[in-house]
Amino acid sequence: MAAPLLPAPGTPMVEIRGLRTEFELPGRKFVVHDHLDFSVQRGEVVSLVGGSGTGKTVLLRQILGLERPAAGRIDVLGRPVAELGQRGAASRVGMLFQHGALFSAFTVLENIAFPLMELRTLPKALIYEAAMVKLQMVGLKPEDGAKMPSDLSGGMIKRVALARALIMDPPLLLLDEPTAGLDPESSDGFVTLLRALHRDLALTVIMVTHDLDTLFELSTRIAVLAERRIIMTGPPKQVIAFQHPFVHDFFLGPRGQRAMELLREYPFAV
């Protein structure tokens, strides 16, 4: 399959300007984002961190075109996501949802093939061949393709969902808590896989995670979402030094010792 058109050199893979997100509640509006600006360059792995209710996952869904903001502009691969529509965005952006979001009545291979079935007019045999390639790309065996989601471990569900996110060969990948719910061994293996795919496929990645090990091992940059906007962005060492209550609690509270260990372990984090 041909790769989607990339933006012109120097154009961000994702550019958000003046974003406002609000939800109607009984008697009032609840504002999640206001005057939010954010951009991601080609090849970056940018992690979004923020407290509960700050709209991290909402932001991913808006980039994917699943939700529309009240105001502002989101450009994806150099084009307004509002013009691309959900189908257009889905063909250019892959998303790994937090809990996998697999179809329980579909086999593993059918789950992986589903986006191609929906968005491309191709022979079924070719679609399943592409799905099998992605299945093995994420470290699963050909015989796993016949299994049902109920037969899978948590780590395998994540890998199947990742294979499905990659089936359209997107240059941009969104990850929502990619290691949530995994035991340490499965988490380490999944992070290693993500790092290899980022390198080998030249992916640009936007990730939401609360896990410090995942954050430090994969991120080239961290963006802090607080006060309805991005208040700080930079490499981990710069972000940790930023004077803000959330930043202090997230990195230097009970998990502060681990954060310092990870800074020493990953030199790129400085």
From TrEMBL:
Keyword Ligase assigned: no
Superkingdom of source: Bacteria
ABC transporter domain ranges (all copies): 14-252
Signal peptide (from-to): none
InterPro entries (alphabetical): AAA+_ATPase (IPR003593), ABC_transporter-like_ATP-bd (IPR003439), ABC_transporter-like_CS (IPR017871), P-loop_NTPase (IPR027417)
Stretches that traverse the bilayer: none
SMART domains referenced in this protein's UniProt entry, alphabetically: AAA
Molecular function per GO: ATP binding; ATP hydrolysis activity
Keyword Nucleotide-binding: yes
Coiled coil: none
UniProt keywords, alphabetically: ATP-binding, Cell membrane, Membrane, Nucleotide-binding, Transport
PANTHER family in the record: PROTEIN TRIGALACTOSYLDIACYLGLYCEROL 3, CHLOROPLASTIC
UniProt protein name: ATP-binding cassette domain-containing protein
